[in-house]
Design goal:
Number of domains: 1
Bound molecules: guanosine-5'-monophosphate, zinc ion
CATH topology: HIT family, subunit A
Strand content: 15-25%
Distance between the termini: 31 Å
Largest sheet: 5 strands, antiparallel
Helix content: 10-25%
CATH superfamily: HIT-like
Oligomer: single chain
Number of strands: 5
CATH architecture: 2-Layer Sandwich
Number of helices: 2
Length: about 110
């Protein structure tokens, strides 16, 4: 998708602080962090929401979470805990329609989320 913000960051057409990159996944720092650590783990492929995931994407979706866990481990978040979030659709707070896993850490998180 040529005009998608996250596709453009992945292609380095827009600035973004990239913290992980491999063949299929890029992770960046969120521009408006909601916690001391707030990263976004993105598939390089443009998938709009979880609802658009196809059977052939299942390994990729699993990888988003294993990359999130690796980044959490690297940042020393495991002992205190951290949160991974996928917002789907406007009612759930999705604002960028390129699937992403939020990795939030470094503070206490309450349940249920707002
Ligand atoms: P959503 O609301 O779709 O779950 O999450 C989108 C996230 O992307 C938000 O946390 C927002 O701060 C972040 N975001 C929006 N635009 C940009 C951008 O241009 N660069 C980066 N790094 N993050 C962005
Ligand atoms: Zn995209």
């Amino acid at each position: 998708m040529s005009d998608c913000i996250f596709c453009r960051i992945i292609r380095r057409e827009l600035p973004g602080k990239i913290v992980h990159e491999d063949e299929t996944v890029t992770a960046i720092e969120d521009i408006r962090p909601q916690a001391p650590v707030h990263l976004l783990v993105l598939p390089k492929a443009h998938i709009e929401t979880l609802g658009a995931v196809k059977p052939e994407d299942e390994a990729l979706i699993g990888k988003l979470f294993s990359v999130a866990a690796k980044l959490a481990r690297e940042r020393g978040l495991e002992s205190r805990g951290y949160r991974t979030v996928v917002n789907n659709g406007s009612g759930a707070g999705q604002t960028v329609y390129h699937l992403h896993v939020h990795l939030l850490g470094g503070r206490v998180f309450h349940w249920p989320p707002g």
